[in-house]
Specification:
Layout lengths: L2 H12 L5 E2 L3 E2 L5 E2 L2 E2 L17 E4 L1 H7 L4 H5 L5 E3 L10 E3 L13 E2 L2 E2 L13 E8 L3 H4 L6 E7 L7 E9 L3 E11 L4 E12 L8 E6 L2 E7 L2 E14 L29 E15 L4 E21 L8 H4 L2 E2 L1 E25 L2 E23 L10 H4 L2 E2 L14 E22 L4 E18 L4 E21 L2 E12 L14 E14 L4 E20 L4 E22 L2 E14 L3 E3 L4 E3 L11 E13 L2 E12 L2 E2 L7 E2 L2 E12 L3 E8 L7 E6 L2 E4 L4 E9 L1
Parallel strand pairs: 8-11
Antiparallel strand pairs: 1-4, 2-3, 5-10, 6-7, 8-9, 10-11, 12-13, 12-42, 13-14, 14-15, 14-16, 15-17, 16-17, 17-18, 18-19, 19-21, 20-23, 21-22, 22-24, 24-25, 25-26, 26-27, 27-28, 28-29, 29-30, 30-31, 31-34, 32-33, 34-35, 35-38, 36-37, 38-39, 39-42, 40-41
């Protein structure tokens, strides 16, 4: 019996269930309906000013105003989040407070508190998402294994007991076509369903690049009696996305080729990413003070297909010789991942020794299996005089696709990695009088990793345990102002092996944070300001790029300042503002085999700007008895290091967007969005001067939503 099975038996024997009220389904304008949902896992019953950490919530109205349909665009609203190398457009990758996760995997995120971001299901679409929570700072004392800078949690759309529905049709630049459907209704007095789905077929400003995707997330909720509820959700999606590493900087200079130029091979076809997930949550409220929940999720993802992409090794890259002939390599990936998580927790409040306590106690277990088959065909070194066919060469100024037969890749990686863990956690927030609250938390994790190299027949195993403490204090300086400070430790398992086929000690981090939370204008505006410092060790760096091994040799520090403000400036005028200053650098020197150079201490971390600002303003009007909204946004991203081991930088950029939305009677809304309003040329992220992702030029889309 493995870790996960033992934990499942233990949790199932001790857990109880609860019911609560959750998010809402928008009915156009600002009208909403009450829905059924859940108490948020791991988060307890705390008001915003009582939490000693900087959290922000991108609610349904904020997301709708931004026009975001995927997680990457949504996270642009938080200045604390920076885009990272997105694996040719095939997954979500972001740094929170300067730190990104394992470069071998997508950035992890939670869905209703469940770990769900790991795996290979493609970029996350927001069709089934009600809100996005950016939970900044140390979280391991409750959530356990996660990213060092904070956690992103997606809250899904759940059934209501009032009938409502919407169909939205969208058409836009680059032959974009999309349909979204969202319908919820009660079937009986105790059972309600919700059906959410989408389909999209879109071209791109990138030549030959076209994506297709569709998905569905139906759910059902059962009221099982007084204080009890069961919710089941299915997640299904399929995406077909050509692998696209972007453009190249010639001799470090961007803009020498148009942003539209695709440097892969259309003949490779798209990579196919599939997701099938199940989530079950069962809750019970014992009384006004105590509740408990049991949750289970199982998620299977896969990614398969060919790609042709720029060769990074300097001793094989022809571009460095003549400035126009790009040497490429062809790769085949067949990745599969399964993730199973089980959790149980008890929430309550009680008095002890004259003090009020709010307690969260629970346990969870997860099992992550990462199965990777990876093949590659690459050119020999330049000293051997390779032919253009061997180089899979393409002229970056006058590209000809399909000029040579596509080579057959040969095996490079064939392994399966299994990570299993069990954790128990407790958090107690104690009222030490009318103004001071003390938060004490700790989590114990037992972790096991098995690495089976099927190519060599070698299997390695390791196990470890970790205690992750947290200490926080909140001072209520006034009814609308709280000051707080917190300290926490975090760990995150690392995937892959070193050159001896051994796994790694987990990534370790410590974080401190101090700040203020406040409300203005009678609660109409909420804000927070925070100072933070995060120290991290055991960061993966390339050890032998030729065979894809790594070394946990890196150490880094990130520190900075954040400020967030949201709310209503006046009647019908809402503001969203987010600013971050982040100074993220290495703390030690080490050798990076990706580029064959030593990285000195004090090197800036890749793709992390020092200054980021995100603004959004929306004005709501009534014209001729109909609702009208005018809005726009601005995103400024400062200069970023574009290659970890050089001085190559991505320039700062500022892009603006605007929208207008008009109600057509009570049942329909017409909307026009324009992104990159001033047609700015910009670059969102890179890994090297040969893998640079250009931003989308000015584009527009129009949508018609019909509510029923």
């Amino acid at each position: 019996m493995n870790h996960f099975q033992r934990a499942a038996l233990a949790l199932c024997s001790t857990s109880a269930l609860a019911a609560a009220t959750g998010p809402s389904l928008a009915q156009g304008g600002t009208e909403t309906v009450t829905v059924t949902g859940i108490r948020k896992a791991y988060q307890g019953d705390f008001k915003r000013l009582e939490t000693p950490q900087a959290d922000i919530t991108l609610d349904a109205e904020t997301l709708r105003a931004s026009g975001a349909v995927d997680l990457t665009r949504a996270l642009d609203l938080s200045a604390s989040v920076a885009r990272q190398n997105n694996f040719g457009g095939l997954w979500n990758a972001f740094a929170l407070r300067g730190f990104v996760g394992d470069e071998n995997l997508p950035s992890n995120f939670l869905v209703n508190g469940f770990n769900a971001g790991r795996g290979f299901g493609g970029p996350r679409d927001l069709s089934g998402i009600e809100s996005v929570e950016v939970l900044k700072g140390p979280r391991a004392a409750l959530f356990g294994r996660g990213e060092p800078g904070g956690t992103v949690n997606l809250v899904t759309k759940r059934p209501t007991f009032k009938r409502a529905g919407e169909v939205k049709l969208t058409a836009g630049s680059f032959d974009t076509r999309r349909v979204d459907v969202d319908w919820t209704a009660p079937l009986t007095d105790t059972v309600a369903v919700r059906l959410v789905g989408f389909a999209e077929d879109a071209g791109s400003f990138r030549n030959t690049v076209e994506t297709r995707k569709h998905g569905a997330s139906p759910s059902v909720a059962w009221r099982l009696g007084a204080g009890s509820q069961l919710v089941y959700e299915l997640e299904y999606s399929r995406q077909e996305i050509p692998f696209d590493r972007g453009v190249v900087a010639v001799n470090g200079e961007l803009g020498r080729i148009p942003a539209s130029r695709f440097l892969g091979e259309p003949g490779d076809g798209p990579l196919k990413a599939d997701v099938q997930g199940h989530q079950l949550e069962f809750q019970h409220e014992f009384n006004r003070d105590w509740s408990a929940l049991l949750g289970l999720t199982s998620r299977k993802t896969s990614l398969e297909g060919f790609s042709t992409e720029a060769e990074l090794a300097a001793n094989r890259q022809g571009l460095r010789l003549d400035g126009r002939t790009l040497t490429r390599q062809r790769r085949f990936r067949d990745y599969d991942a399964t993730y199973q998580v089980l959790r149980a927790e008890l929430n309550g409040r009680f008095r002890l020794a004259g003090l009020q306590h709010r307690l969260i106690v629970g346990a969870d277990a997860d099992r992550f299996e990462n199965d990777q088959v990876f093949l590659r065909a690459r050119a020999p070194t330049l000293t051997s005089g390779p032919t253009r066919v061997q180089q899979q060469a393409i002229d970056i100024f006058e590209p000809v696709y399909g000029a040579y037969p596509l080579p057959t890749p040969t095996p490079l990686t064939n392994r399966v990695e299994t990570q299993q863990s069990v954790g128990v956690f407790v958090q107690d927030q104690i009222d030490l009088g009318a103004r001071v609250q003390l938060r004490l938390g700790a989590r114990f994790d037992e972790y096991e990793q098995t690495l089976e190299n099927r190519a060599s027949g070698i299997t390695q195993a390791q196990d470890t345990s970790r205690v992750s403490p947290q200490l926080g204090v909140v001072f209520r300086a006034a009814e609308t102002l709280s000051l707080y400070a917190t300290y926490g430790e975090n760990f995150r398992p690392l995937s892959g092996t070193d050159r001896n086929n051994n796994g790694f000690e987990p990534n370790q981090s410590t974080a401190v944070e101090a700040g203020a939370k406040f409300s203005l204008a009678g609660g109409a505006i909420d804000g927070n300001v925070a100072l933070f410092r995060v120290e991290q060790r055991n960061i993966l760096v390339a050890d032998d790029a030729s065979v894809g091994t790594f070394s946990a040799a890196g150490r880094a520090t990130s520190q900075g300042l954040e400020a967030d403000l949201q709310g209503d400036l006046a009647e019908g005028l809402s503001l969203w503002a987010s600013y971050a200053y982040v100074d993220a650098k290495t703390r030690n020197s080490f050798f990076d085999a990706n580029f064959g150079v030593s990285v000195p201490a004090g090197t800036r971390l890749l793709n992390v700007p020092k200054h980021t600002l995100s603004l959004q303003l929306v004005k709501s009007l009534v014209v001729a008895g109909q609702g009208l909204k005018l809005g726009g946004g601005l995103l400024h991203v400062g200069r970023r290091l574009g290659e970890f081991t050089s001085t190559f930088e991505l320039p700062a950029y500022t892009v603006a967007r605007a929208f207008v939305s008009a109600d057509l009677g009570r049942a329909a809304t017409l909307r026009l969005d324009v992104d990159n309003l001033f047609d700015e040329a910009y670059y969102t992220n890179s890994f090297s001067p040969l893998w640079v992702q250009p931003g989308t030029p000015r584009s527009a889309r129009v949508s018609l939503a019909w509510r029923f």
